[in-house]
Every structure is written in structure tokens, then in C-alpha cells.
Design goal:
The chain has about 160 residues and is α/β, with parallel strands linked by helices. It has 6 helices and 5 strands, in the order βαααβαββαβα. Strands 3-2-1-4-5 form a 5-stranded parallel sheet, sandwiched between helices. α4 links the parallel β2 and β3.
Length: about 160
């Protein structure tokens, strides 16, 4: 069983980064939100994000449970290679880089919900309900976690229960 962490909203403050980049008090105040986010294509936006205060604790906890952990993160649509480059740079900068075999950048995370060889379910920690629902539908274990809202104690308990 492998544990995957999403980046944006779980260990990287994507929404805080949007607020700073677009100079708004809340990311929902960004005019033409989807269009504005697409304007980030080709930039180093992902390398400018801050980790959450709980990010190191979460990554260290996952590492304490297993050596078989990774990152499964979505790139911006139409910007896969650039997004992946800057996300890898960010992961390296903060010391959260998993083994390269466990580093996945895709908009279709559910393809990694189970081990391809033996069908063992993998765990995904993600802030988006849609990603969790698709992961579970494909046989994986999904745990929703929003670092700016949820307790680190709760996610650690859920992880421990799911990984047991």
C-alpha cells in the first residue's frame, strides 16, 4: 500500500499563493477565476507557494508509516511540463521530494488508486472532493484533508487507521 500526498491545498498553500499573486483578500475574489488561473501557464507560480505550518509534520508522519510514499499532484491544464518542473523544484526546496518513481503529475489521479500488480488499494490525501470520489470509485482509499481548515491530529489518526 502506497500513500500519496496531493500538493496544492495539502502541503503547498495554493490558495494563499493565488491571493498573493492576484493581490486579492480571498481567492474567490479573483475576477474570472478560471481564466485568471490559466494565465499562470508558463510561469514559476508553483515555486512561489509557501508550505503550510503543518506540511513538514504531515510529510514526516507519512514517512514514519512507510518508505513507499509519493506525491500525486495535478498540473495546470495545458501546462503539464512547466507545472511539473516548478512543483519538483518546490518539493526539492522544502525537502518533500519522494523517490522519482513515486512522483506523479496528472489530472487523472484515480489511475493510481490501486497497485497495478496485486490490486492493493493505495491511499490519497487530497483537498478536492472530486479527486477523492474518483479515487475511491477506482478501489483506493481517499482521505480528504485541507491544511488550512482540518486538524493535523485528525489526518494523522485517519492515516493511521487506514494504513493499519
Amino acid at each position: 500500500m502506497k500513500i500519496y500526498l496531493d500538493m496544492d491545498g495539502v502541503i503547498a498553500d495554493f490558495f494563499g499563493g493565488l491571493e498573493e499573486y492576484f493581490n486579492v483578500p480571498h481567492w474567490k475574489k479573483i475576477p474570472k477565476t478560471e481564466e485568471s488561473i490559466m494565465s499562470l501557464k508558463g510561469t514559476d507560480f508553483f515555486n512561489t507557494l509557501r508550505p503550510y505550518e503543518t506540511s513538514t509534520e504531515l510529510v514526516d508522519f507519512v514517512k514514519s508509516l512507510t518508505d513507499d510514499w509519493g506525491i500525486c499532484s495535478s498540473p495546470l491544464r495545458g501546462d503539464r511540463d512547466n507545472s511539473a518542473f516548478w512543483k519538483r523544484t518546490w518539493l526539492t526546496k522544502y525537502g518533500y521530494m519522494p523517490s522519482i518513481d513515486n512522483l506523479i503529475f496528472t489530472g487523472q489521479k484515480e489511475h493510481y488508486a490501486v497497485n497495478k500488480f496485486d490490486g492493493t488499494p493505495n491511499i490519497l490525501i487530497d483537498d478536492k472532493p472530486d479527486n477523492i470520489a474518483r479515487w475511491i470509485a477506482k478501489g483506493g482509499i481517499g482521505i480528504r484533508y485541507q491544511a488550512n481548515e482540518d486538524s493535523i491530529v485528525t489526518i494523522k489518526r485517519k492515516l493511521k487507521e487506514s494504513y493499519a
